[in-house]
């Protein structure tokens, strides 16, 4: 990134900050504005923004953004509500997520005959996790029933970490690094490592750092200007340590955030403010680069198969498994459809996309294009419908509390 790119980003951040209050009252969400801006100033638009960011740089920015979002959102979760309605996220993760991947594979096999079976499996896995940041408009809307908000928040916080080992297994099979006979053992090993190390690191490090933070605050050792920084460091520390040790940094960040919110039940919002602000700025940069460097170069290669898969991924592939897996819960039909619809794709899929780009798969261009278009459609569709549908659901709950 050169100085011209830095100047453009800085001015855009300043302008958006200046109008953020006004923009927040419109149905157009920030991610859509950032992406369209990146597309407009990128090499396939005005050519003002070079977007010469290598895959490692884009991946790092997206990963850190997701880690901060997961930690702060988890810390704000209402554990009492989540505990009472744990069946919803449990079913979404243990039943709905595998069904989503399987259905995504079936659709991909039909629409992309040029891709190998395992390349299609890679694509389906990349688009299975939902985005906590894009879902914030729903999970923070008091018009939405609390159990739905907490359930969707828990789902988006954990499904990307669960998908990481699955993605690596399919990548190993697609590249020939592992055989089908080895896939079962490899999958179990990766799942245990990713989830186990992620949980141990996230919970263990959070306990230690939260204890030190509380002690330092009690003794008055922390200057006022520094009080919001430790939470940012804690979130990134959980993520980095888990990744370093071979676990899932996303699982570590989310589990650490849950524990932090429980250990500091009062006054945590002030401590979390800086983490949320840092996450918002990193998210802005990620989406601008995504629009300029990912969406722009692929616009001329869009096919009807890519668009159809993207539409189906956001609708049938996501909504049908959610509707079926929630059978027998307290959710009404409109609530099941609502939860099925609000499975936005975003940062996790971008991170997965960068990982897959580095593997040089034969069908890599088709996979990257499909992921990019799906994310773009998700940003548009979920951004425009979040507040209206949330308000409509809230009105229905008010009129018919029994569902």
Automatic annotation (TrEMBL):
<protein>
    <submittedName>
        <fullName>K(+)/H(+) antiporter NhaP2</fullName>
    </submittedName>
</protein>
<feature type="transmembrane region" description="Helical">
    <location>
        <begin position="250"/>
        <end position="267"/>
    </location>
</feature>
<feature type="transmembrane region" description="Helical">
    <location>
        <begin position="92"/>
        <end position="111"/>
    </location>
</feature>
<feature type="domain" description="Cation/H+ exchanger transmembrane">
    <location>
        <begin position="17"/>
        <end position="390"/>
    </location>
</feature>
<keyword id="KW-1133">Transmembrane helix</keyword>
<keyword id="KW-0813">Transport</keyword>
<feature type="transmembrane region" description="Helical">
    <location>
        <begin position="279"/>
        <end position="300"/>
    </location>
</feature>
<keyword id="KW-0406">Ion transport</keyword>
<feature type="transmembrane region" description="Helical">
    <location>
        <begin position="195"/>
        <end position="214"/>
    </location>
</feature>
<dbReference type="InterPro" id="IPR006153">
    <property type="entry name" value="Cation/H_exchanger_TM"/>
</dbReference>
<keyword id="KW-0812">Transmembrane</keyword>
<keyword id="KW-0050">Antiport</keyword>
<feature type="transmembrane region" description="Helical">
    <location>
        <begin position="369"/>
        <end position="390"/>
    </location>
</feature>
<dbReference type="Pfam" id="PF00999">
    <property type="entry name" value="Na_H_Exchanger"/>
</dbReference>
<feature type="transmembrane region" description="Helical">
    <location>
        <begin position="306"/>
        <end position="326"/>
    </location>
</feature>
<feature type="transmembrane region" description="Helical">
    <location>
        <begin position="32"/>
        <end position="51"/>
    </location>
</feature>
<feature type="transmembrane region" description="Helical">
    <location>
        <begin position="338"/>
        <end position="357"/>
    </location>
</feature>
<dbReference type="GO" id="GO:1902600">
    <property type="term" value="P:proton transmembrane transport"/>
</dbReference>
<dbReference type="GO" id="GO:0005886">
    <property type="term" value="C:plasma membrane"/>
</dbReference>
<dbReference type="GO" id="GO:0015297">
    <property type="term" value="F:antiporter activity"/>
</dbReference>
<keyword id="KW-0472">Membrane</keyword>
């Amino acid at each position: 990134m050169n100085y011209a790119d830095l100047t453009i980003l800085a001015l855009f951040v300043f302008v958006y900050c200046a109008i953020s209050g006004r923009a927040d009252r419109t149905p157009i969400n920030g991610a859509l504005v950032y992406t369209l801006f990146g597309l407009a100033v990128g090499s396939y638009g005005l050519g003002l923004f070079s977007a010469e960011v290598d895959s490692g740089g884009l991946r790092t920015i997206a990963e850190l953004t997701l880690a901060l979002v997961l930690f702060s959102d988890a810390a704000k979760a209402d554990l009492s509500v989540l505990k009472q309605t744990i069946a919803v996220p449990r079913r979404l993760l243990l039943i709905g997520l595998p069904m989503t991947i399987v259905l995504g594979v079936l659709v991909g096999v039909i629409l992309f005959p040029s891709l190998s079976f395992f390349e299609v499996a890679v694509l389906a896995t990349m688009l299975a996790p939902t985005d906590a940041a894009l879902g914030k408009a729903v999970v923070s809307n008091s018009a939405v029933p609390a159990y739905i908000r907490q359930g969707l928040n828990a789902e988006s916080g954990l499904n990307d970490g669960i998908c990481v080992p699955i993605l690596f297994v399919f990548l190993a099979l697609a590249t020939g690094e592992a055989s089908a006979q080895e896939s079962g053992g490899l999958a179990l090993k990766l799942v245990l490592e990713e989830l186990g190390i992620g949980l141990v690191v996230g919970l263990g490090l959070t306990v230690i750092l939260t204890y030190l933070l509380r002690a330092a605050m009690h003794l008055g050792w922390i200057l006022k200007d520094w009080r919001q920084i430790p939470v940012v460091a804690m979130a990134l520390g959980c993520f980095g340590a888990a990744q370093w040790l071979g676990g899932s940094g996303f699982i570590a960040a989310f589990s650490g955030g849950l524990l932090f919110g429980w250990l500091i039940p009062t006054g945590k919002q002030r401590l979390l403010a800086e983490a949320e602000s840092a996450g918002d700025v990193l998210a802005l940069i990620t989406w601008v680069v995504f629009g300029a460097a990912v969406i722009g170069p692929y616009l001329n290669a869009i096919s009807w198969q890519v668009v159809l898969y993207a539409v189906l991924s956001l609708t049938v592939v996501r909504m049908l498994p959610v509707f079926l897996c929630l059978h027998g819960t307290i959710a009404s039909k409109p609530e099941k459809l609502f939860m099925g619809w609000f499975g936005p794709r975003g940062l996790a899929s971008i991170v997965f996309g960068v990982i897959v780009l580095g593997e040089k798969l034969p069908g890599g261009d088709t996979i990257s294009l499909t992921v990019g278009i799906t994310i773009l459609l998700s940003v548009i569709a979920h951004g425009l419908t979040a507040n209206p549908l949330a308000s409509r659901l809230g009105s229905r709950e008010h009129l018919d509390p029994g569902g």
